[in-house]
Amino acid sequence: MALNVVIMAAGKGTRMKSANPKVLHRLAGRSLLQHVLDAAAQLAQGDIANRTVVITGHGAEAVEAACAGSGAVFARQMPQLGTGHAVQQAVPQLDDAHNTTLILNGDVPLIRAATAQALVQACGGRQLALLTIELADATGYGRIVREGDGVRAIVEHKDASPAQRQIREVYTGIMAAPTALLKRWVMALKNDNAQKEFYLTDIVAMAVAEGVPVVTAPAATDTEVLGVNSPVQLADLERRFQRLQADAHLENGVRLADPARFDQRGTLVCGSDVEIDVNCIFEGRVQVDDGARIGANCIVRDAHIGAGAVIHPFTHIEGATVGAGSLVGPFARLRPGAELGTEVHIGNFVEVKNSTLAAGAKANHLAYLGDSTVGERVNFGAGSITANYDGANKHRTEIGNDVHVGSNCVLVAPVKLGDGATIGGGSTIAKDVPAGQLTVARARQVTLPGWTRPKKGPR
Ligand code: UD1
Ligand code: MG
Fold first, then answer.
1. Percent of the chain with pLDDT strictly greater than 70
2. Mean pLDDT of 172-188
3. Cis bond leading into 79, ω under 30°?
């Protein structure tokens, strides 16, 4: 059964002290709103799409642009006169064929799909279902007012009596409601309250008055219902989320040196016996195969690290493949299109871009390989580079198998080095090199007889 999903994202977020709309601030590499959209997307069943309506207001253009491709539609709320007023804006967009409407908050990013699903089930298109939680300090929240076991109303903190303020059971801001009733109720809201706002929460008393059952479902943890209102809260949720991800990897057998010093901003898939030292950052989609080890302070984005590979500390890897058993770093940089075969060695201060290195190739010190094809067992000497750019275009360097390039060479592309060639140190190679021979391209060394050093003259 398809749903309507309303995501409230019109608020300003003054306490973020930022020019950017609050819901576009990032948590684990994705905007707060994207987390909510992703959770909502997981509620889709089969191929029937839910109708997702995002309420925008502050920074509406930017927020709507950020949702492009999500399939969501938008309802603008200008000015912002409260949560009930926000849902009023969505009313024309709610599909009557979907008899349940789920309301989520754009600034409550870690809501789990399973929790939202349970709420939708509890609603069943017939009952008003509220997601609640018990808090030690409920200041600022709407309180769940009960009579006996039954919910009577939600009273906002600012409108609550001293006795009601003692209630610790609060509304999380997330509910599921029968669509037709929700539409009617929100259009009938009044703003005669402490904040002169249209409170969505007033529909609870309306449901009770009409004899529509109001049920509650508890959130599993506070983390999934915590909102972001300030940088401090954002940083707190970031650490909570990272800890959850780290714990999931530990459960799967990944050896994280310290789960508190681990950051995953995307997807990380690890094989067995993977070891990750402290302060590594994983972004985009990263796969690490069995037995690979990643040293401290590495940044790895959109990459595949093969089985048994060792990435030494302070290495940057982006858009690259590292073959099984390869050794990379410390202080190495693999840029997009770097494809290392098996047992390739890339040492300190070596940069590789858009280049394929076949099995056993080595570039151990201070080198640059760009737009190149490097054969098996090649040894690329310290300080050598491919000059791949002529100021206008990029050109390829092709290095055959078993080539030995000495130190401090410049290979001026386009250029080809035949199998088994040896290049003398300090050579500038601008023409193709034959296989199996020594090629040297540098000035011959001379010693000048009778030369004397200049002496300092009088001042
Ligand atoms: C709301 C609930 C309160 C609940 C709390 C949980 C109401 C009246 N109160 O209070 O019971 O305990 O959330 O966090 O609903 N928004 C709009 N347009 C508006 C006002 C708000 O889009 O005109 C959006 C905000 O951007 C935010 C969400 O709605 O994402 C909640 O608004 P907020 O002002 O934070 O409501 P609270 O006062 O916290
Ligand atoms: Mg709030």
1. 100
2. 98
3. yes
Q: Pull the structure tokens for residue 232.
A: 């401090």
| Candidate from 12, 20, 55, 83 with most ligand 1 atoms within 8 A of CB, to mutate | 83
Asked if 386 and 397 count as a contact pair (C-beta separation under 8 A), the reply is: yes
Give the 3-state secondary structure of 70-104: CCCEEEECCCCCCHHHHHHHHHHHCCCCCCEEEEE
4-225 and 249-439 agree in CATH topology: no
pLDDT (average), residues 60-70: 95
DSSP codes, 156-186: -GGG--HHHHT--EEEEEEEEEEHHHHHHHH
Tens digit of each residue's pLDDT (9 = 90 or more) over 116-136: 999 999 999 999 999 999 999
Write out pLDDT tens, residues 312-332: 999 999 999 999 999 999 999
Task: Fold for 4-225, please state it.
Answer: Spore Coat Polysaccharide Biosynthesis Protein SpsA; Chain A (3.90.550)
User: How many Å lie between the centroid of ligand 2 and the Cα of residue 316?
Assistant: 39
pLDDT in tens, 42-55: 998 776 779 999 99
| Residue from 433, 405, 437 nearest 417 by CA | 433
**pTM to 2 decimal places:** 0.93
pLDDT at 272: 98
Give the domain ranges of the chain.
4-225, 249-439
Q: Which of 58, 98, 316, 365 is catalytic?
A: 365
pLDDT of residue 459: 80
Residue 322 in tokens: 């590292």
Instruction: Give the burial class of 133: count Cβ atoms within 10 A of its Cβ; 0-12 exposed, 13-18 middle, 19 or more buried.
Output: buried
Residues 6 or more apart in contact with residue 119 via CB below 8 angstroms: 102, 129, 131, 174, 175, 176, 217
Cα 137 to middle of ligand 2, angstroms = 15
Q: 């004397």: which residue's tokens?
A: 452
Its CATH class, for the domain covering 249-439, is mainly beta
Looking at the CA of residue 108, tell me the nearest atom of ligand 1.
30
CA dist., res. 9 & res. 76, Å (int): 10
Calculate the CA dihedral of residues 252, 257, 261, 262 and round it to 10 degrees. Answer: -40
